[in-house]
TrEMBL record:
Gene Ontology molecular function terms on file: RNA binding; RNA methyltransferase activity
Organism: Thermoanaerobacter thermohydrosulfuricus WC1
Pfam family, one: SpoU_sub_bind
Family: Belongs to the class IV-like SAM-binding methyltransferase superfamily. RNA methyltransferase TrmH family.
Keyword terms of this UniProt record: Methyltransferase, Transferase
Protein name as it appears in the record: rRNA methylase, putative, group 3
Length: 247
């Protein structure tokens, strides 16, 4: 685990982006002018989320007023490549079992998913660089230390990653409340990645189109959707249970 670090000032932030440093988010003052557009463009090209905020917030983040209208928050976690996740499964002589999280934005959800995934032996988790929460201090705390033992990859494009996984022999299982097939109907005794969508929006339409299977978790109550971390836990346990029965 890396310590979270804060980079303040325009030139230091520009150089950090150019060097490829892992940056979770860049905060820019609402009133910033000058070359701030250059920083925003560089950040977007690198897939870094940019958020505008007040100078008071920037000063609190930086611990100083000398931030020149921009603060970059560095990563608290060193991400893996997707290949590392598959190699880990191979080292364990197990069929790959990955989770793909489609735009999960709640850090508590991500932390809880990591905790369940680590407990049941998931080989790795894939998250997108944009429109999703990364591993931050809240995620670390919510995972109760599990993040230290979980391989997490951050990718630029979920759909391209799915296509690459398919080429490597993995089957992709999407989740959708309107699916015709129950999650209980699949065998799961094959190399796979399960896609979990965000609360409210679910898995995006294009991602669902790229899935080999789409399943739902049937419910009998009046609430027709589950918290993303709860849904992930149910699906993870189902995979582990089915595979154990085949062992």
């Amino acid at each position: 685990m890396e310590e979270q670090n804060v980079i303040l000032g325009r030139n230091p932030v520009i150089e950090a982006i150019k060097s490829g440093k892992e940056i979770e988010k860049i905060y820019v003052s609402k009133t910033a002018g000058g070359n701030i557009s250059k920083i925003i463009n560089l950040a977007k090209e690198a897939g870094i989320v940019v958020s505008t905020t007040d100078n008071d917030i920037l000063s609190k983040l930086a611990g100083s007023q000398n931030h020149q209208g921009v603060v970059a928050v560095g990563a608290v976690y060193k991400y893996f490549d997707v290949d590392d996740l598959l190699e880990y499964a191979e080292q364990r002589k197990e069929k790959p079992f990955l989770l793909i999280l489609d735009e999960i934005t709640d850090p508590h959800n991500l932390g809880a998913i990591i905790r369940s995934a680590e407990a049941f032996g998931v080989h790795g988790i894939i998250i997108p660089k944009r429109r999703a929460v990364g591993v931050n201090a809240t995620v670390v705390k919510t995972s109760a230390g599990a993040v230290e033992h979980m391989r997490i990859a951050k990718v630029s494009n979920i759909n391209n990653t799915i296509r690459g996984l398919k080429e490597r022999g993995l089957w992709i299982v999407g989740t959708d409340v309107n699916a015709g097939k129950s999650f209980e109907e699949l065998d799961y005794d094959f190399p796979l990645a399960i896609v979990i969508g965000s609360e409210g929006k679910g898995v995006s339409k294009l991602v669902l189109q790229n899935c080999d299977f789409v399943v739902k978790i049937p419910m009998k109550g009046k609430i027709n959707s589950l918290n993303a971390s709860v849904a992930a836990s149910i699906l993870i346990y189902q995979v582990v249970s089915k595979r154990k029965g085949k062992a």
